[in-house]
């Protein structure tokens, strides 16, 4: 599963099949961290006597975990709130709660603007949910949007809601200190803090014991993971490379992925750790945002085009078969055709295997909104985004074509949507492969020879190693 802001994917919780407890329906938008947060929320609520349902019509409480990254992410949520209003007309006892980044950004404005909303709970206040729900049941609208410097929900075992039972997200840190000028995340998620590594390793071990075969370590900037602890009298620190190793050592049969890496913090040490452990997947998501050093400076990204290309070179030399994906923003403030062409040329130079591509969307109160003019006309933004998408389409196709004829180890993740006789899974490089079942089951590792590809998927057949 790869959920990312622009998709505004609806992620529904599974049914815990308990009829006597009040039922909570959770709908999730935004990044993988939000998906994992919904699992934390489900865990807290189940621990307090609630059950979760995937049927909105059965719900006593409707929660929507929201994203503020671009304007259209918020528009989508407002549309959903209107729909929840209709449900509430039929069943007035239903409570509606807004969680996540919009709750944090809009605070009690949400209660004023949208009558349907009973609860507004920010990303660091989920432990308070049971109390806030009880207050709302008594007719008091509940708001808690306090951000914390410590909260990492380290002791809470998320209730896995994805149902595939094979791959899981594990949050290793929260918040972000980077202050990219366009970005709302530091305001909605607060300061960066890292989670105790022992609790991460324990969660990963528990997942492995429960049959999971892949974990994705999550953070807005995983490469700045930093933990300081005490072992007896000796102080010790754990950086991201150390943590990656600790997680890889849980079991060689457990795949390890991570997201997201900031180009300014991706060290060679991390690349060597990736190269050393077979079970750390050979894929790096390294958002570039723009190919123009001038724009990168305005974005406050703290690297140049050359620095970025230097990181790409390091990846290629230390992990030759590593795939690289990225994020790109089209039409940031003051972007000229020359800047745009620099983005296109960088894309060609790197040959990204995959990319998430967005039009710049000004977010209130960010540095860019306060100090820079959103001056690229909408139609120019659209045209530039289209050119970026078209180029990436070709690059993604080339990346897949290059795999035809090769063999890859694939983790079987589920049944193909198109055929009951086929499975889908991913290569270490994070490319999706569809192949005939050949007597295997979900959670198995198999060797697949790639026989063909479509623009979106590789196709193959299971072979002996
Ligand atoms: N922490 C990650 C990504 C967080 S948000 C990182 O720094 O790479 C995911 C992506 O959304 C960003 O990489 C960026 O490409 C995009 N994004 C963030 N703010 C945006 C905005 N205001 N307009 C358009 N795209 C934005
Ligand atoms: Fe936003 Fe930048 Fe932090 Fe990513 S690193 S979450 S883009 S501020
Ligand atoms: Fe969106 Fe918040 Fe994630 S703004 S991208 S849900 S951190």
UniProtKB/TrEMBL annotation:
Its main location: cytoplasm. Pfam families: Radical_SAM, TRAM, UPF0004. Residues 22-138 form the MTTase N-terminal domain. It is found in: Cytoplasm. SMART domains: Elp3 (SM00729). Residues 162-398 form the Radical SAM core domain. Its cofactor is [4Fe-4S] cluster. [4Fe-4S] cluster 1 binds at residues 31, 67, 101. Keywords: 4Fe-4S, Cytoplasm, Iron, Iron-sulfur, Metal-binding, S-adenosyl-L-methionine, Transferase, tRNA processing. Its EC number is 2.8.4.3. Gene3D superfamilies: Methylthiotransferase, N-terminal domain, Nucleic acid-binding proteins, tm_1862 like domain. InterPro entries: Elp3/MiaA/NifB-like_rSAM (IPR006638), Methylthiotransferase (IPR005839), Methylthiotransferase_CS (IPR020612), Methylthiotransferase_N (IPR013848), Methylthiotransferase_N_sf (IPR038135), MiaB_methiolase (IPR006463), NA-bd_OB-fold (IPR012340), rSAM (IPR007197). Binds 2 [4Fe-4S] clusters. One cluster is coordinated with 3 cysteines and an exchangeable S-adenosyl-L-methionine. Catalyzes the methylthiolation of N6-(dimethylallyl)adenosine (i(6)A), leading to the formation of 2-methylthio-N6-(dimethylallyl)adenosine (ms(2)i(6)A) at position 37 in tRNAs that read codons beginning with uridine. HAMAP family: tRNA_metthiotr_MiaB. This is tRNA-2-methylthio-N(6)-dimethylallyladenosine synthase. It comes from Tenuifilum thalassicum. The gene is miaB.
């Amino acid at each position: 599963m790869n959920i990312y802001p622009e998709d505004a994917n609806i992620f529904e919780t599974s049914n815990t099949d308990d009829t006597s407890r009040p039922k909570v329906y959770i709908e999730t938008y935004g990044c993988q961290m939000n998906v994992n947060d919904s699992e934390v929320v489900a865990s807290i609520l189940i621990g307090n006597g609630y059950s979760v349902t995937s049927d909105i019509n059965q719900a006593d409480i409707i929660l929507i975990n929201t994203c503020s990254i671009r304007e259209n992410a918020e528009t989508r949520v407002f549309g959903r709130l209107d729909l929840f209003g209709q449900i509430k007309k039929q069943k007035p006892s239903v409570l509606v709660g807004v969680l996540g980044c919009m709750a944090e950004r809009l605070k009690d404005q949400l209660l004023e603007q949208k009558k349907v909303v009973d609860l507004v709970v920010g990303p660091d206040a989920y432990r308070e949910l049971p109390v806030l729900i009880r207050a709302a049941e008594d007719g008091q609208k509940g708001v808690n949007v306090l951000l914390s410097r410590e909260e990492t929900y380290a002791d809470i075992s998320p209730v896995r809601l994805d149902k595939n039972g094979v791959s899981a997200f594990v949050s290793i840190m929260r918040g972000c200190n980077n202050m990219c000028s366009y970005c709302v995340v530091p305001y909605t998620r607060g300061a960066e803090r890292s989670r105790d590594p022992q609790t991460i390793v324990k969660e990963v071990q528990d997942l492995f014991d429960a049959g999971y075969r892949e974990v994705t370590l999550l953070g807005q900037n995983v490469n700045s993971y930093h933990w300081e602890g005490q072992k007896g009298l000796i102080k010790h620190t754990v950086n991201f490379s150390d943590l990656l190793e600790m997680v890889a050592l849980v079991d060689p049969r457990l795949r390890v992925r991570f997201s997201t890496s900031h180009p300014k913090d991706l060290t060679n040490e991390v690349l060597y750790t990736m190269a050393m452990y077979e079970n750390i997947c050979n894929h790096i998501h390294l958002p570039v945002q723009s190919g123009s050093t001038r724009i990168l400076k305005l974005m406050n990204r703290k690297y140049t085009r050359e620095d970025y290309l230097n990181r790409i070179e390091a990846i290629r030399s230390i992990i030759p078969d590593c795939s690289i994906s990225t994020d790109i923003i089209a039409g940031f403030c003051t972007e000229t055709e020359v800047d745009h062409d620099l983005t296109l040329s960088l894309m060609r130079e790197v040959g990204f295997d995959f990319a998430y591509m967005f039009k710049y969307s000004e977010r209130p109160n960010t540095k860019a909104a306060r100090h820079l003019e959103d001056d690229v006309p909408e139609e120019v933004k659209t045209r530039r985004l289209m050119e970026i998408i078209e180029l990436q389409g070709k690059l993604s196709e080339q990346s897949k074509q290059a795999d035809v004829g090769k063999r890859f180890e694939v983790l079987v993740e589920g049944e193909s949507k198109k055929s009951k006789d086929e499975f889908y899974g991913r290569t270490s490089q994070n490319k999706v492969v569809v192949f005939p079942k050949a007597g295997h089951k979900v959670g198995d590792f198999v060797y697949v020879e790639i026989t063909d590809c479509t623009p979106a998927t590789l196709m193959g057949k299971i072979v002996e190693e």
